[in-house]
Design brief:
With about 675 residues, the chain is mainly β. The chain folds into three domains: about 300 residues, Beta-galactosidase, Chain A, domain 5 (Distorted Sandwich); about 100 residues, Carboxypeptidase-like, regulatory domain (Immunoglobulin-like); about 190 residues, Jelly Rolls, CATH 2.60.120. The protein contains five helices and 45 strands. β40 and β41 form a beta hairpin. It binds 2-acetamido-2-deoxy-beta-D-glucopyranose (2 copies).
């Protein structure tokens, strides 16, 4: 992976700058290591527990301390809030100036469905009873039980685990609804870790996206932009970042790329990392995007949310509907080094590999978390039969097991578990470690439109590997390709993503791969197309330059946004007047939008139109995809002519500036031919 040297140097300069600030006595808080405890970086030099390295549990009426000589974890009893993490010479890694309930906790946003004054506020899960589940030299596991309340209509048993010799701790939770539970909507389930604001200044969420971050107070003195989460840093403590935009959504990742993120303190050199070794319990599998770490400094594990999806992903329970699901375990890893944050990131990546190797964990005590021998697996070879070619192995296709349902239903399925794997270049793969139960097999592959679903249900049994042999997917196609725009992979990343306005940039997002994360790109459309909307000419235009990544509204005045009509101009020979042509339009995202398709006459009756589609908010949240949708639109040959034709794509809705689409792929197929 290429490390950008410039930003590396800039990173180092920032660190120096902040170190100077600290030395200059810019006191943002009052925490000091107690006298006599040197802030050294080597945790093993200061054993705090059993001299033999065993795990110790020390519970009083008010708190419980877990200690393995490397990490010391203090939780409030019986609530279960993490109030302290001692490690690597730091007395407390968490934000000690926050109330005990506001440092490390699980929370939920849920409402009784018939509650009129519903809010989407996150509420802490507060334990009412505390129990030591296991206490040996090798492992401590403790439980906080949160009973069903009017605010949180389900029961949660959440656990913390400390193992001997392990630099960090595990957590997971068992969510249960019994038969008496009222109808409920659940929008969010997550855990939050709020870190020492003076110490943790450097955030890393990927090899590339790492930096010294703005401070919380820089956001407070800044100017909120189109969404309150996006803040223009107009008066930051560090003058060099003046004018930058900060927004936690800029650091969102697909679950598959959201396995490791965290923060670094440079003096002493300590890192704290959130490691998620599996997507099985996360809503919607590997391609759902969610938050990671952000200014605070905060570190999240989001298990369930409606981010980048909208209300389709609200988890809805009917009155009395029973349910049980285990979220986690995840691992909070701690490491220490010699001052280079990238070295700590690197070590944490190695630790992620260790966690992946030991998944599914054998040590959680709850029987609701199945161990390896209680799980089954599936193997098969996935082929694509796109008529124009013989069946070809799916190259890096995605195949998953999810609750039985319709084609594509896994996209908005979140009550169960999902198990996904990526095929190799020969289409082969195994999905390991699947929970026992009934599933459908779902799949899709880059380069092909649509979704595959297995004809029959698959019954996973413990310890058994099911070989499903060759599975062949025939993607939608009615005729040969006349032209196509983009590449079908459920993302708009291959299209033209503009540079941000220099007034709203975040300097670490300037590379091609991350540019779509920049703030305010939707308004760049109106600057590039001030008078006339985009026209794309087949054979002349190039989708990497001439197809704007999002079909957004055009700004024609302060806060005035107009609907837009894009044109695709294409030549055609030998039109079959009574033939049925097909326009395949795959959307990568949609937000309060509608699509109307007209052929050769912008004022004609639309050959195709939708009502409102999508509330995934991917445009405003700097995503490059939301939920996937495919339209196969019949175009009667008598609307086409020999010579030049135009297809008009109109997005008519303009209530709010973020109405629009991201296209994944557009293709015109010739007249339907016999299969
Ligand atoms: C389209 O533009 C990209 C980027 O400039 C270039 O790499 C590619 O070759 C172009 N494609 C065609 C078909 O000209
Ligand atoms: C034309 O093709 C579309 C898309 O493949 C299909 O939905 C429609 O039924 C076809 N219409 C006719 C008249 O065959």
């Amino acid at each position: 992976m290429k490390i950008d040297k410039v930003s590396k140097w800039r990173g180092l300069l920032w660190i120096l700058f902040f170190v100077q600030l600290l030395i200059a006595g810019d006191c943002r808080g009052k925490t000091k290591a107690p006298a006599g405890r040197k802030p050294t970086a080597n945790p093993n030099a200061q054993p705090t527990a059993n001299p033999n390295g065993g795990v110790r549990v020390n519970a009083t009426a008010k708190q419980v301390v877990l200690d393995n000589g490397i990490v010391q974890l203090t939780l409030q009893v019986p609530q279960g809030y993490i109030i302290g993490i001692r490690y690597g010479g730091l007395e407390n890694i968490l934000a000690v100036s926050n109330r005990p309930s506001d440092r490390g906790y699980w929370d939920i946003a849920s409402t009784n469905s018939d509650d009129n004054d519903r809010t989407d506020d996150q509420i802490r899960l507060v334990g009412a009873s505390f129990k030591i589940i296991k206490q040996t030299e090798d492992q401590a596991e403790i439980s906080f039980l949160c009973p069903k309340t009017s605010k949180v209509p389900l029961q949660v048993d959440y656990r913390y685990i400390l193992l001997r010799g392990r630099s960090g701790f595990y957590s997971y939770a068992i969510f249960t609804r019994d038969k008496g539970t009222p109808a409920t909507d659940v929008q969010y389930i997550r855990t939050v870790h709020k870190l020492d604001t003076q110490k943790f200044l450097y955030m890393a969420v990927s090899d590339k996206l790492q930096r010294v971050m703005p401070m919380n107070r820089d956001r407070e003195t800044g100017k909120p932009l189109a969404y309150k989460e996006a803040v223009h840093l107009t008066n930051p403590t560090n003058p060099k970042i003046k004018g930058e935009v900060d927004d936690k959504y800029q650091y969102a990742f697909d679950h598959k790329d959201n396995k490791l993120h965290g923060w670094v303190c440079t003096d002493p050199s300590v890192g704290i990392w959130l490691i998620t070794p599996s997507d099985e319990f996360r809503t919607r599998g590997p391609h759902k995007q969610d938050l990671t770490s952000h200014v605070g400094p905060n570190m999240l594990s989001v298990f369930h949310s409606i981010h980048y999806a909208g209300p389709d992903l609200i988890m809805k329970f009917t009155n009395g509907e029973p349910w049980k699901k285990v979220y986690g375990p995840y691992f909070v890893h701690l490491n220490s080094g010699k001052g280079d944050p990238r070295a700590l990131w690197q070590e944490a990546k190695n630790q992620l590999q260790e966690e992946l190797k030991s998944w599914p964990y054998e040590f959680p005590v709850s029987e609701d978390f199945p161990k390896a021998n209680q799980r089954g697996s599936v193997e098969l070879i996935f082929f694509m039969n796109d008529r124009s070619k013989p069946p070809v192995p799916a190259n890096l296709g995605w195949v998953g097991l999810a609750q039985p349902g319709e084609v594509g239903s896994w996209q908005s399925e979140m009550k169960g578990y999902q198990f996904w794997a990526q095929t190799d270049r020969e289409g082969k793969f195994t999905i390991p470690n699947v929970h026992v139960g009934k599933y459908n097999l779902y799949a899709w592959a880059p380069g092909f439109i649509g979704d595959y679903k297995s004809a029959s249900e698959i019954d996973i049994a413990p310890g058994k590997q099911i070989n499903l042999g060759d599975q062949v997917y025939t993607p939608p196609r009615s005729g040969e390709t006349l032209w196509e725009i983009g590449f079908p992979d459920r993302s708009a990343a291959e299209f033209f993503v503009p540079d941000p306005s220099p007034n709203f940039a975040n300097p670490i997002l300037n590379d091609q791969e991350n540019k779509y994360r920049q703030y305010g790109l939707w308004d760049r459309y109106s600057e590039i197309y001030p008078k006339q909307d985009l026209t794309y000419t087949i054979g002349v235009s190039n989708h990497t330059k001439d197809w704007f990544y999002a079909h957004v509204l055009r700004k024609t005045g302060p806060e005035i946004y107009q609907p837009t009509v894009w044109q695709v101009v294409f030549p055609l020979k030998d039109v079959v007047p009574n033939g049925n042509y097909t326009l395949q339009i795959a959307l990568a995202a949609a937000n309060f939008a509608a699509l109307q398709v007209r052929v050769n006459n912008p004022d004609s009756i639309a050959v195709f139109s939708t009502s409102l589609v999508g509330k995934d908010n991917a445009i405003a949240r700097h995503g490059i995809h939301g939920l996937y949708q495919l339209y196969s639109i019949g175009i009667p040959g008598n609307l086409l002519k020999s010579g030049q034709n135009t297809i008009f794509l109109r997005q008519p809705r303009n209530n709010g500036k973020f109405c629009g689409f991201m296209y994944d792929y557009v293709r015109l197929e010739g007249p339907a031919s016999p299969k």
